[in-house]
C-alpha cells in the first residue's frame, strides 16, 4: 500500500516514525463550516443555523477567524434525502469541478462547482484555509476525522487536540511556551476520536473538504438518517468548538508540540455475500460484529450471518480493522464495511508564522 507524502508515494512501512523538529506554517485566516452535504444527515443541517444564530447574537468577534457557514445541498435538505441526482460528496474531484455545465448536468455537479467557486478554488492559494464538513453515519463510529494526507500537519494536530479534549479525561491548557499541559477539568462530552487516512491524491479527492487547504470531515454516529439525536448533536457541536479553539491556540504563535498518533489507513471495501444471478444480499452483518467499528478482526471472526443461519467468517491472513459497519447509505454502493490498517505516526512540532 502506498501513501502520498512530501517525498512522493511511499510504502506505509516507510512513513515517518521519528520527530521532524519544528515546522512553521501560515496562520489560519478563514474557515468554513458546512452542513447538509448529505441532506438527510441532520446534525450538520441544524448545527449550521445554530452557528449563524450565535454570530447574530454575539457578533463576528465570537470566533478567532471569520467563519463562513454553508448549507451545502439545500435541495436535498428540503427533501430530507441524501442527494437529488448524484452524491454531492463524490463531486469534488478536479475533473468534475472543471467539467462543462450543460442542461443535463446533475444538480449536485452544478452545486459542487458553485461551492468550489465560493470556498476554493481547489488547489489554489485563494482556497479557504479550513473546511469542516459535518456528516452523520448510522455506524457506531464515535467522532471520526477523515483526511487525505498524513503530512497535513494542521489536520494531524487538530486530530490530536480533538482526542485530548473529547477522549482523554483531561483537557489541554496553555503554558507560556507551548501546548503541553493537562488539567483535571472534565469534558462536556466523552466519545472515541479516530482518524481515517484515505490513499487518494488530492486532485482525485472527491469530498467537499478537499477544496480547502486543510480539509477536515467530521463523521459522528450512530444516528439514523432523517433523525437528530441530542447526544450526537452535542458531540458535533463540541467538536467544531474544539477545532475553533485549536485555531486560536495555533494563531497565537506558540509552539504546539508533536506526538505519536494512531491512524487508520483505508485498505479496501467488503460487500455483502450476494446471489450470483440476482445480486441480492444473502446475509446481514453478524450480531457479534454489529456496532464494533474499529475492532481488530482475526481470521475466523464472524462477519456475516446468512438468512439461512450460517456464519461467514473473516478469511484474511492479516488482522484489519472494520469501520462504517452496516452504514445505511452504503447499501446502494455495495459496501458492507471498509477495512483499515492501524498505523502509529509521529507528527512534528508546529508554530504559526505570519506571511
Description:
The chain is of the alpha/beta class. Helix content is 21%, strand content 28%. It is built from six helices and 20 strands. The protein has helices at 42-58, 74-79, 94-97, 107-119, 153-166, 230-251; strands spanning 2-5, 8-11, 22-26, 31-35, 67-71, 130-136, 142-147, 171-173, 178-179, 181-183, 193-197, 214-221, 255-256, 259-270, 283-285, 302-306, 311-313, 321-323, 337-347, 349-353. The strands form six sheets. The protein has a nine-stranded mixed sheet, with helices on one face. It has a three-stranded antiparallel sheet with strand order 15-16-17, with no helix packed on it. Strand 4 (31-35), helix 1 (42-58) and strand 5 form a beta-alpha-beta unit.
The gist of it:
The chain is of the alpha/beta class and 355 residues long.
Which structural class best describes the helix and strand composition? alpha/beta
Tell me which oligomeric state these chains represent. Answer: single chain
As a whole number of angstroms, the C-alpha radius of gyration is 20 Å
SSE series: EEEEHEHHHEEHEEEEEHEEEEEEEE
The rounded distance between the terminal residues' Cα atoms is 36 Å
Mean pLDDT: 90
The count of helical stretches stands at: 6
| Poorly predicted segments | 1-18, 169-187
Q: Would you count the extended β strands for me?
A: 20
Side-by-side strand order of the widest sheet: 5-4-6-12-7-11-14-19-18
- Which range best describes the helical content: under 10%, 10-25%, 25-40%, 40-55%, 55-70% or over 70%? 10-25%
| Coarse morphology | globular
Please describe the biggest sheet, giving its number of strands, its sense, and whether it closes into a barrel: 9 strands, mixed
Fraction in beta strands: 25-35%
Enzyme class: hydrolase
Domain AstE/AspA barrel-sandwich hybrid: 260-342
GO molecular function: aminoacylase activity; hydrolase activity, acting on ester bonds; metal ion binding
Catalytic activity: an N-acyl-aromatic L-alpha-amino acid + H2O = an aromatic L-alpha-amino acid + a carboxylate; an N-acetyl-L-cysteine-S-conjugate + H2O = an S-substituted L-cysteine + acetate
Amino acid at each position: 500500500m502506498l501513501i502520498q507524502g512530501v517525498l512522493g508515494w511511499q510504502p506505509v512501512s516507510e512513513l515517518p516514525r521519528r520527530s521532524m523538529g519544528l515546522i512553521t506554517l501560515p496562520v489560519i485566516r478563514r474557515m468554513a463550516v458546512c452542513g447538509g452535504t448529505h441532506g438527510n444527515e441532520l446534525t450538520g443541517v441544524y448545527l449550521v443555523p445554530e452557528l449563524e444564530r450565535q454570530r447574530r447574537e454575539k457578533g463576528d468577534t465570537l470566533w478567532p477567524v471569520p467563519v463562513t457557514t454553508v448549507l451545502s445541498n439545500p435541495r436535498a435538505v428540503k427533501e430530507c434525502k441524501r442527494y437529488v441526482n448524484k452524491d454531492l460528496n463524490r463531486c469534488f474531484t478536479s475533473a468534475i469541478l472543471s467539467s462543462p455545465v450543460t442542461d443535463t448536468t446533475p444538480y449536485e455537479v452544478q452545486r459542487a462547482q458553485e461551492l468550489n467557486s465560493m470556498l476554493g478554488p481547489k488547489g489554489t492559494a485563494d482556497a479557504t484555509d479550513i473546511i469542516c464538513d459535518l456528516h452523520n453515519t448510522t455506524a457506531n463510529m464515535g467522532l471520526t476525522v477523515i483526511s487525505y494526507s498524513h503530512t497535513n500537519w494542521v489536520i494531524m494536530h487538530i486530530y490530536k487536540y480533538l482526542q485530548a479534549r473529547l477522549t482523554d479525561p483531561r483537557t489541554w491548557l496553555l503554558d507560556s511556551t507551548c501546548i503541553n499541559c493537562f488539567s483535571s477539568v472534565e469534558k462536556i462530552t466523552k466519545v472515541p476520536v479516530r482518524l481515517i487516512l484515505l490513499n487518494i491524491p488530492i486532485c482525485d479527492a472527491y469530498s467537499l473538504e478537499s477544496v480547502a487547504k486543510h480539509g477536515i470531515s467530521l463523521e459522528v454516529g450512530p444516528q439514523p438518517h432523517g433523525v437528530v439525536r441530542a447526544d450526537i448533536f452535542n458531540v458535533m457541536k463540541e467538536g467544531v468548538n474544539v477545532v475553533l479553539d485549536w485555531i486560536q491556540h495555533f494563531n497565537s504563535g506558540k509552539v504546539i508540540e508533536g506526538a505519536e498518533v494512531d491512524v487508520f489507513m483505508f485498505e479496501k471495501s467488503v460487500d455483502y455475500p450476494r446471489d450470483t444471478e440476482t445480486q441480492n444480499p444473502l446475509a446481514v452483518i453478524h450480531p457479534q460484529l454489529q456496532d464494533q467499528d474499529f475492532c481488530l478482526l482475526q481470521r475466523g471472526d464472524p462477519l456475516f450471518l446468512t438468512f439461512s443461519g450460517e456464519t461467514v467468517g473473516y478469511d484474511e491472513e492479516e488482522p484489519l480493522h472494520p469501520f462504517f459497519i452496516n452504514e445505511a447509505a452504503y447499501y446502494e454502493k455495495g459496501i458492507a464495511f471498509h477495512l483499515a490498517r492501524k498505523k502509529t505516526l509521529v507528527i512534528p512540532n508546529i508554530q504559526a508564522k505570519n506571511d
